[in-house]
Amino acid sequence: MEESTSREKILKKIRKALIHKSELDFGAVDFDAEIYTSSEEPPEILFAQRFTALNGKFVFCENEQDFGFTLSALLKENGWESVYCLDEKIKTLLNTAKISFSDKESDFVNVNIGVTTCEYLVARTGSVIISSRQAAGRRLPAYSNYHIVVAFTDQLVNSIKDALKEIKNKYGTNMPSLISAITGPSRTADIEKTLVQGAHGPKEIYVLLIDSAG
After folding, report:
1. Long-range Cβ contact pairs of 153-157 (< 8 A, separation 24 or more)
2. pTM of the entire predicted model
3. Which domain, by its residues, includes 75?
4. Looking at residue 76, which CATH number applies to its domain?
5. In a domain, 105, yes or no
6. What is the pLDDT along the chain (214 residues), one digit of tens a residue?
């Protein structure tokens, strides 16, 4: 009886709310206003903080030559082989640094290190924005065991909203069929509530950020 009474009270309140509707006017809501407080940190510092907090690996390179030295050392330190890259600009940097890589379709199934560019880096969330319009397409960022993202400081934006706006300006009516935000290495806790990193994607993700003014 008590349950029925409680139910009736709730239904009575719902009926009353439906009859006496609110007269508040929400027409003047500013949907373009910033909802986050601004940071005093430079965007590259903020991105590095957010990205590394999500178990990403971040390295700042003063110029393209420094990038070559850094990547060579990283590959040697970890004993990594089977580097795969499809982006023409990055292939030029790899050739300059004398780093061996493949861009052959037949070698894709054996790729260990996938080197790609990105559309933008989001400072506020530490996210890497990629799209299907890039040379790496949909496959390489997800298939390789280790994903190395090569970006420049002029690709830094504050928010995902800013990144989407820039992508829209960049591609116009010919938008990519896929736009994805990578926020740290892939991870899941679906199996017995145990966190597993690299369960459905790269085990580790690196961002090598090159100073555009370098």
Report:
1. 153/44, 153/209, 153/210, 153/211, 153/212, 153/213, 154/212, 155/118, 155/119, 155/120, 155/121, 156/43, 156/44, 156/47, 156/120, 156/121, 156/123, 157/43, 157/120, 157/121, 157/122, 157/123
2. 0.80
3. 39-186+196-210
4. 3.40.50.10420
5. yes
6. 455 678 788 888 888 877 776 666 666 666 676 666 777 789 999 999 999 999 999 999 999 999 999 999 999 999 999 999 999 999 999 999 999 999 999 999 999 999 999 999 999 999 999 999 999 988 999 899 999 999 999 999 999 999 999 999 999 999 999 999 998 876 665 666 665 655 667 889 999 999 998 7
